[in-house]
Amino acid sequence: MTGRTATRPATGRWLLTAVALAGFLTTLDNTVVTVALPSIQRDLGASLAALEWVATGYLLTFAGLMPAGGRLADVWGHRTTLLTGLMLFTAASFAAGLAGTVGPLVAARLVQGAGAALVLPATLAVLAVLDERRRSTGVAVWMASGAAALALGPVVGGYLSQHAHWSWVFLVNVPLGAAVVALAAVAVPASRPVRRALDVPGVLASAVFLASGTFALIHGGEHGYGSPEVVAALALCAGGGAAFAVAERRAADPMVDLRLFAVRAFAGGVAAQVLWGLGVNGVFFYTAIFLQGVLGFTPTGSGLAFVPLALLVVLVTPLAPLLERRVGAGRTVAAGLTLVAGGMAVAATLEAGDGWGRLLPAVCAIGIGSALTMPLGSAVLGAVPASRAGVAGGVFSVSREVSGLFGIAAVGAVVLAAPSFAAGYATGLLAAAGLVLAGALIALRTLK
């Protein structure tokens, strides 16, 4: 592999710890605030529209600015971009925790997302300069931390809002963020910035395309895709996408080199990641409602249902690189995705009155399978030059975030079209399982 820019090798457990914690913190804020929204509404007198912005403002800037964050990681250097993003995220978390009205809280959430958009692709760029074995281990740890954060977000948010105050959902990031900044400053090696123009038209067009598309997906399901604001967002999304394609074709040094998608492993890995995100994230969004409304779980019990999944992801992830070295990334990822699809199919058979005995097999299959998909990120990064690692990391990360939003919208459409929520949820699970199986076939064909 050519184009490496690290000034010294990035090794050691402290580096992996810094990368994992940075990924965990920024991913946790995708879901941690959801359970705290009723408390925020009560304390701040927020309207439902304002609460939507509290919940989704983070996702808008996170997804919308992530390709730009990847480009900046290449232009500024990986460590500089990572530290800048972490400090921005931590400062915005402090501001969100101190907010006394909705306006400053929403503004802080937007800035949080911007900081996270710098952090996530920079962490992958840091790992991309490792040799193949250590990169595989590092990316597996990074992906496991993100999967655990998504599963634990509702649990952490519910506990803090119930036993402390909703502000601690944000304030807890401050000491943790400061610790990760200090650790990353020591453990992450400096890299020489790549002499490359920023591609401002590409950055702006991609931000408009992703942010408006994210807005349309989030609000379309609730307000209807024919509502004026959603129609305007979809039109803006189409215009931004067209402008981005034109900008990248004309740029002497494009932000996202579309030729990367001609690389079999890169295109296949991203496609498998998108299909996994469409299925898993779409189902996760409706699972808490199903557990409480159909199976009769308490709010605490429904949160605890995700804990075995998170634990299995953490425990099985160290085995994924070992299996990858024995049978290859393609077979390992395909096996993991097949297990995830099988767990979804089992969950689709759950009925009112079923308890932990019926639920746990499905949860365990999804957790183990998700852990075995961890070589996916390493395979994608290993397919491109390290000088493009930031952009590749940004594309891979944004594919995960945006595919999750598409999954929520798609499964939501299935649920709403069914005669009952339980029937719609079961049908949505089977549809999601089909998407994940398609990802398994793509991984098997494109990854070594």
UniProtKB/TrEMBL annotation:
It comes from the Bacteria. Pfam families: MFS_1 (PF07690). The chain crosses the membrane at residues 46-68, 80-100, 106-130, 139-160, 166-188, 200-218, 230-247, 268-291, 303-323, 335-353, 359-381, 402-422, 428-447. CDD domains: MFS_MMR_MDR_like. It is found in: Cell membrane. It is a multi-pass membrane protein. Coiled coil: none annotated. Its main location: membrane. This is MFS transporter. It comes from Nonomuraea bangladeshensis.
